[in-house]
Amino acid sequence: xxxxxxxxxxxxxxxxxxxxxxxxxxxxxxxxxxxxxxxxxxxxxxxxxxxxxxxxxxxxxxxxxxxxxxxxxxxxxxxxxxxxxxxxxxxxxxxxxxxxxxxxxxxxxxxxxxxxxxxxxxxxxxxxxxxxxxxxxxxxxxxxxxxxxxxxxxxxxxxxxxxxxxxxxxxxxxxxxxxxxxxxxxxxxxxxxxxxxxxxxxxxxxxxxxxxxxxxxxxxxxxxxxxxxxxxxxxxxxxxxxxxxxxxxxxxxxxxxxxxxxxxxxxxxxxxxxxxxxxxxxxxxxxxxxxxxxxxxxxxxxxxxxxxxxxxxxxxxxxxxxxxxxxxxxxxxxxxxxxxxxxxxxxxxxxxxxxxxxxxxxxxxxxxxxxxxxxxxxxxxxxxxxxxxxxxxxxxxxxxxxxxxxxx
Length: 408
Hints:
It is globular, with a radius of gyration of 25 Å. It folds into three domains: 10-155, Rossmann fold (3-Layer(aba) Sandwich), CATH 3.40.50; 198-329, CATH 3.30.1330.90; 334-406, 2-Layer Sandwich (Alpha-Beta Plaits), CATH 3.30.70.260. The protein has helices spanning 29-40, 54-59, 67-73, 93-97, 116-125, 164-184, 198-221, 242-253, 255-258, 267-273, 346-356, 387-394, and strands spanning 21-25, 44-48, 63-64, 76-79, 103-107, 128-133, 153-155, 228-235, 277-283, 291-299, 302-311, 316-322, 325-329, 334-341, 361-368, 374-381, 399-406. The longest helix has 24 residues, at 198-221. By secondary structure, it is of the alpha/beta class. Helix 7 runs parallel beside helix 8 (242-253). The strands form three sheets. It has a seven-stranded parallel sheet with strand order 3-2-1-4-5-6-7, sandwiched between helices. It has a six-stranded mixed sheet with strand order 9-8-10-11-12-13, covered by helices on one side. The protein has a four-stranded antiparallel sheet with strand order 15-16-14-17, sandwiched between helices. Helix 5 links the parallel strand 5 and strand 6 (128-133). It is 31% helix and 26% strand.
């Protein structure tokens, strides 16, 4: 307005940050830095991150909250989560309906986490007083996109950390990493680390595959906000290089937390940022298997775990333990884990419902503690059943629980 020779003070009435509530969705490295800066302005910081441990939240002085609590309390919401199946379209019409009238939202993470058409309606209805968007579901942003016509929505062309200082710091960091390697041999931020020669890689490759599957499995079995991950090597596995195997386990375990952003290089740092202590153990315990890996995730005293080994000369991976239950599972694709009372007809009930909905069973394994007792049924499925199909299975009173696990 000043460029137009106007003096319109009323149009620029803002809102203070002091004593307001900021909710940060995703407390990784960037989310943590945002929290520090918000606290400096005297803001109360709420955090939603299923993978953030309570001890880590306490250390950075944020309050862990549910999404519903955040929607009800937050004056500002800023998104710093990766794009995953769980976060895609997470901020949608239903979420906006639960938010405080006049709140403000920012998304500088990944396009598509905030449903754009729902944001437009939330602004028009007055729920959202202002929004700042740096990322979009389709980039570049269409010339006729509604965001361009709404003054309450500030848009930037996916700038990220596009500052002069950031560009300079990248160059400095690269130079320091190379200098450190040449002077001390220390490897920092290498895209090809950990390095293995061809012979060692051939030997360790089956363990990398099994480890990543175990990590994915345990992350979906475990309670959220784990604070400890214990990786145990047994039998011949104790002779393998533990660091690369542990990194693959972590990439599997953190896949939901980090999405495409987690890899073998940053997995340990990401676990640390989430307050997860990683322990590596080499065991001399005698078991039925010559070589095995075991992964256990802890939240205080709560524990979820899985163990795996190899079958045959081709070193085919198998899951052989879920918590304390001996099993034999081919870790591929989609698993359906069902706990039920052991009685005739359960398998037929499951198969009939899945067949009716064109869901093919690729493999099945059955396990029970005793005749007529508790049983675990594990199905390898060719596709993911919809929730309505799972609800149909749950109607059987002898079905205790049903859970879908995605291993790829």
